[in-house]
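Suppose a colleague, Dr. K., hands you the sequence of a protein chain of 171 amino acids and asks what its three-dimensional shape might be. Before reaching for any lab equipment, you can write down a predicted structure in token form. Begin with the sequence itself:
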Amino acid sequence: NDSFVVVATGESNVEINETNRVYFAKKLYEVALELAKMIVKDGEGATKLIEINVFQASSKEEAKKVGQAIATSNLFKTAMFGNDPNWGRILSAVGQLHLDIDFSKVKLYLGDFLLYDGEPLNFDRKSAVEYLKNNQEVVINLYLKRGEEEWTFYTCDLGYKYVEINAEYTT
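The predicted structure, expressed as tokens, is then:
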């Protein structure tokens, strides 16, 4: 699997102290986040980088579980590849966690499109499809209204090329 590693050997003359520690941590985080996004974008056959933001969860663990459930859902990932603003595939991935989430309080956005606000909404489907077609970076914002915690996941879509590459791969 793709990965990157930071190693501190102590061989340089650079000293991390109270003055530059926060700056160093911030810059290291920025580099790590960009590398993580590059790894996702480079997924076999990927056409979209998808950012999934889970807000207002009851705990960090809950926010992380919800984000991961969406990010790893093959039905969601194929809908993104097909440029389908299918709110049902997103919320069904969350529902499979059995976290007793009150979906009548949930809000779900695809970019600037509010797809679900306690119930399915009539949204400009044609424009939402165009958003998916015309953007290689897609944002999903999910508000659970259960607390103050949040988490962000990055994933990619799942299309024909992924299946082709992995079906032909052998060890």
